[in-house]
Design goal:
The complex is a heterodimer.
Chain A lengths: L27 H30 L6 H4 L14 H25 L3 H32 L9 H5 L8 H42 L1 H5 L3 H26 L1
Chain B lengths: L1 H13 L5 H29 L3 H23 L7 H32 L1
Helix pairs in contact in B: 2-3
The chains are: A mainly alpha, B mainly alpha.
């Protein structure tokens, strides 16, 4: 006769999904930030995919290496990708200072968090200034929502001999999509800078020190990295492809 | 407020975090991938006259690689619970559906115009 008993019916289960605790083991606000970013990823991907669909269906398209070949204020022609390369570098760099702020937050080092947060805000402002220059440059060439350059200027943006009617159509689509998508991204960067400033002020006031954790820095960090992530895609699909 | 603080403390003990060394390593990987993209766009493609049908998929693969490094390490998703990672990544896969539908549709638009 066996004395071993089978699993008792009333044994308390301790697996992550058996209730009584958070299965994801993240704080509520951080999880919600993730879900917000997921929804934002859908918004950006629908914008980028519409851009892709319109571009695929157009017989011609302005060549990125001809449209984006100036470094505003320094080089007028023949420097494709240089300016946007700088913008990409600035944004990746500010993402790094953001993780460094989060890392300093884990060590509860208020002073370091403040410095890295300030560096992140400065990076964001630098990116926005670069984007303002870029927009201003394209605007001075004649591109804007619903506006395209005159015939002579437009000719320069296409490789090979393309009929003028086709040039006008795809230039219109290009202008609308470029300003809408980089504008929507720029608006995210702008909101991110504002949020980062608010968090920096809170850190300075000692709000998170009293709370005992710098989790808020981590949450805005998620948003900031997402903005960087979107730029990686915008960069590829507008400037490289 | 108190609920948040207790959660955080419970969380911190067992989590693997990003060290400074690791952060800079990821940064250099991202920088390197971007430099490779520039190198292809400015030097390799014009010199050998490689068509965009070959270069574009390379750009897309490199972009997805960059996205992986940002999400996994900067956004820390690699060190979160598998459940959370799946809750974020699986819905993203639905985007592939939209890409397939709209690329297909855009080929039809070309035919309409032609």
């Amino acid at each position: 006769m066996s004395t071993t008993v089978a699993q008792p019916v009333d044994e308390v289960k301790s697996t992550p999904w058996s209730g009584g605790r958070s299965p994801f083991e993240v704080e509520y606000g951080k999880m919600m930030m993730w879900f917000f970013l997921l929804s934002d990823a859908f918004t950006f991907s629908s914008l980028l995919i519409s851009y892709g669909a319109l571009r695929f269906s157009a017989p011609v398209w302005p060549a990125p290496s001809l449209v984006f070949q100036s470094f505003p204020g320094l080089i007028e022609h023949g420097a494709p990708l240089v300016f946007v390369g700088l913008m990409t570098f600035i944004l990746i760099m500010s993402s790094v200072t953001m993780v460094l702020a989060v890392e300093a937050g884990h060590r509860n080092s208020k002073k370091e968090v403040v410095w890295w947060m300030i560096a992140t805000v400065v990076g964001g402002l630098m990116f926005l200034s670069c984007q303002a220059l870029e927009w201003n440059h394209l605007h001075s060439e004649g591109f804007w929502w619903g506006h395209i350059p005159n015939k002579e200027t437009m000719q320069e943006f296409f490789k090979g001999g393309v009929p003028l009617s086709q040039q006008a159509m795809s230039s219109h689509q290009f202008a609308n999509l470029f300003f809408t998508i980089t504008g929507f991204h720029g608006f995210h960067v702008f909101s991110g800078v504002i949020i980062n400033i608010i968090i920096t002020v809170n850190v300075l006031l000692g709000t998170y020190e009293r709370r005992g954790s710098y989790l808020m820095v981590e949450k805005v960090g998620l948003y900031w990295h997402f903005v960087d992530l979107v730029w990686v895609f915008v960069f590829t699909f507008f400037y490289l492809v | 407020m108190s609920a948040e603080t207790t959660d955080v403390h419970a969380e911190h003990g067992e989590h693997e975090t990003m060290t400074k060394g690791r952060i800079w390593k990821v940064f250099f990987i991202l920088l390197l991938i971007t430099c490779v993209e520039f190198f292809i766009a400015l030097v390799v493609a014009p010199k050998f006259g490689i068509s965009s049908t070959i270069v574009n998929p390379i750009y897309i693969v490199l972009t997805l690689l960059k996205a992986y490094f940002i999400v996994a390490f900067f956004m820390h998703l690699k060190f979160e619970k598998v459940g959370l990672a799946l809750a974020i990544i699986v819905p993203i896969l639905f985007i592939i559906g939209l890409i397939l539908v709209l690329t297909n549709e855009s080929h039809y638009w070309i035919d309409l115009r032609g």
